[in-house]
Amino acid sequence: MKKYIFSLSFLFACTLLVNGQSTDQLISNCVMNAGPDARYLKDFRVQLGSADIDSDLRFKANISLWKNTKYRFSLCNSEGSKGQLILSIKDATNKTILLSFDKNSGKTYPFIDFVCNKSGIYQLNYDFFKGQQGSGVGVVSMIK
């Protein structure tokens, strides 16, 4: 009888562990869209309300990047988002070195590639185009 109770308890615990490891579908889709040559490194979940369009990009995160490495920054929106997720990358001097949108044409890009010329800490700034509200995910991958 003790073996039977122990076996049931073990199976129940395993069931809980398996269900607790489900992945977020948005992140999975964004990783898959990065391409077959991309190796997933990190993701950033972004959820923001509407804001003034003249303000700086609101979601900030730091990441360490290595010299002579090519990175891909993929941007994916949730279905209910009103805005398009955009990204700005700044170096240690707070100089913007890369944008995922063109200010002149207003075009946003679903991903941007970046070859790092100097190892260091870079600031990733996420927001939604024109300060609209939305949720999405930014995925950082290394290109092989």
Structural features:
single chain, 144 residues, alpha+beta, 4-stranded antiparallel sheet, 2 helices, 8 strands, globular
If you had to describe this structure to a student in words, what would you say it looks like?
This protein is an alpha+beta fold. The protein has 2 helices and 8 strands. It has helices at residues 2-19, 25-33; strands at 38-48, 59-65, 70-77, 85-90, 96-99, 111-115, 120-128, 134-143. The strands form 2 sheets. It has a 4-stranded antiparallel sheet. It has a 4-stranded antiparallel sheet with strand order 2-7-4-5, with no helix packed on it. A hairpin with a 5-residue loop joins strand 4 and strand 5 (96-99). The longest helix is centred in the N-terminal third of the chain and has 18 residues, at 2-19. The protein is globular and about 70 Å long. The model is unreliable at 14-23 (pLDDT under 50).
